[in-house]
Amino acid sequence: MEHEHGSTCSICGLVPLARGLRRADRVIARSAAMQELLKRAARFAPSEAPVMVRGETGTGKEVIARTLHANGPRAGKPFVAVNVAALPAELLESELFGHGKGAFTGAAASRRGLFEEANEGTLFLDEIGEMALPLQAKLLRALQDGEVRRVGENRSFAVDARIVCATHRDLASRVAAGQFREDLYFRLKVLTLNVPPLRERPEDVLPLALQFLGEEKRPLTGFTEAAKARLLAHSWPGNVRELQNAVKHGAALAQGALVDRDDLPEDLESSDRTPSAARGQDDADALQAADGRGAVREGTTLDRGGPSEHELRSLAEVEREHILRVLDACGGSQAEAARVLGIARNTLWRKLRGFAETEAGGTQGARS
Ligand SMILES: Nc1ncnc2c1ncn2[C@@H]1O[C@H](COP(=O)(O)OP(=O)(O)OP(=O)(O)O)[C@@H](O)[C@H]1O
């Protein structure tokens, strides 16, 4: 079953995230791992306790933080996000806590900080592990006292912001190394959510890619089978953000209604040679999918009196095409496709990797 938060979710019970939010904020979670994560998030959402979201860069930690906020009692109040790593310590301090008039050169008027802006809402502290130790002490004090003091002022303001933080680092080892305060660490990690890397949830790759494609201005309808195989074979070290950028790249270069393998960034694979016959196949698929009718292949020698290309195709090619079609029909879910094909998921995964490797090696599509 599709598990997107464009409508009320029967799997994890979260209310629609899409209401009032950009379409990009919809959470795609086809994999069991993400569905489990959302179930856990749904249990945390009504709580006031701080949440620490852990995961590699680009996995969707902020998306999860927004989901928590949008599904909790503070939903109608502000969600204020700050990237701790993006600002030098002094600037971050005045951003977080605000400053009084004349607190420093250029402070012509007093200004409230993000803590105050997030009052009654959620303050999302991204990359919390990068916070300098002196500021960690100030943050801890603000959390303990429930009030903040603007830089250069003596009075304090009561603040009530739910704290959600995120880190791609192993904070426990930073604590052990004396780089992160232990008391702050335990205060922030009352509840924890771990967002799995994209390579551990390949079922999410194609649904995410289609979602991102739908956000493009150009009217593109999907990906060729070769493009899908390539998306599925990549390990995505930059996770969902890397996939998002790859889709943008593909959408910009696409010539037909479908994004083809060669439209995707070259660095998705080390070797990138597509035999023309394979490319012709993809074009045919693209045309067929675009207009719903049969299509003439370009660059191939059909109807010349000899056996047709279909008759010359090897068993391996037919198998590949069938597997990719089933995968497509199952909306990219490898678990479902493996069930339909009657093979183990691992077997399917190995075969998909094999297709991509063969293509990268330039042998796919070769005719004997
Ligand atoms: N499950 C998902 N469904 C839909 N879009 C997603 C999902 N996960 C991530 N994205 C999109 O991918 C991009 C990166 O996500 P996000 O910024 O939440 O990652 P992050 O882990 O917070 O990154 P960083 O570590 O760099 O702070 C965003 O544009 C986000 O909308």
From TrEMBL:
Q: Which SUPFAM superfamilies match?
A: Homeodomain-like, P-loop containing nucleoside triphosphate hydrolases
Source organism per entry reads Vulgatibacter incomptus
Question: What SMART domains does the record point to?
Answer: AAA
Q: State the protein's name.
A: Response regulator of zinc sigma-54-dependent two-component system
Superkingdom = Bacteria
Q: Which UniProt keywords apply?
A: ATP-binding, DNA-binding, Nucleotide-binding, Transcription, Transcription regulation
A GO molecular function annotation here is: ATP binding
Q: Please give the residue ranges the record annotates as the region Disordered.
A: 262-284
